[in-house]
Amino acid sequence: MRARDRLAATGADGGPDPAPRRPSGRTAVPGVWDLESLVAWKGPQLVRLARALLRDPHQAEDVVQDVLATCVRKWSRIQSVDDPSAYLNRMVVNAVTSLRRRAWRREWLSDPAELPEVHLDDSSSGHAERQRCLALLRRLPDRQRIALVLRLYEDMPDEEIADLLGCSTGTVRSNAHRGLATLRRLIAEEDPRA
After folding, report:
1. 21, 63, 145, 146: which could join 140 in a potential S-S bond, CB 3.0 to 4.6 Å?
2. What is residue 151's DSSP assignment?
3. Multiple choice CATH, 127-194, 3.40.50.300, 1.10.10.350, 1.10.10.10, 2.60.40.10
4. Which residues form the RNA polymerase sigma-70 region domain (predicted)?
5. Maximum CA pair distance of the chain?
6. pLDDT digit string, tens, across residues 3-56
């Protein structure tokens, strides 16, 4: 190791340079603070988050790739935040939300006459019920839908959901509670006998 490299890798006291700290005093990223290292450290977690929210691995990877491309363009801003890990999580959640909105708009803007007519028989009742549940979930506000999907479909604890969404566990519980109440109301509107 050259002297210049040794000097760059040591702190003021001659020991190893500590992890960079932000004004809050929290460690920004374990040991390093450059885009390449952040992506290597955080990339797999971002893909897992996107997969949990989308349930389509190809779309999830596309979302993360778009987020990382945005990171390159906005690196100076990301470098200045207190917690870049949470910032990247939030970027993924926002990208997933935007993707779902675009898909929802395409769904509603498509001509119903172009859609094939579906005839259900007794053997497809389970599939029909799942499709009905998914359609009802799509009608929920984003925060409520994300909280319910992560809690019920992905079986994640509220604390982990709160970390992913960058909010408190109380907010997660509140969104899940409101989402369930909205689902009950929507089901009652569709079928008053329910």
Report:
1. 145
2. I
3. 1.10.10.10
4. 43-106
5. 79
6. 334 334 434 444 444 444 333 444 444 444 677 887 888 889 899 888 877 767
